[in-house]
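Entry:
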Amino acid sequence: MLPQLKQADVRGPGTPYRVFVSYSRYDAALAKEFLKHLKASARTVGSPFKPEEIFFDQTEIMAGDEWERIIQPALDASHTVSS
């Protein structure tokens, strides 16, 4: 088991994820389209979250990253999981 990173190690202090987008690789194109609309919604006045508070693996995990150490803290910190 890999050691857990604190949320601050993943996003920086004070910037937790609020929305975690989960999807099947078969639905990757649909998930990207959903993300586009979700981020547009997040930019509106009164939105309960900001675009940078959305976790989407293709934009948050880079080649060579230990994805297990990034995904679990992001999932734990999120208020909403969308799949």
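The beta strands are 19-21, 54-55, 80-82.
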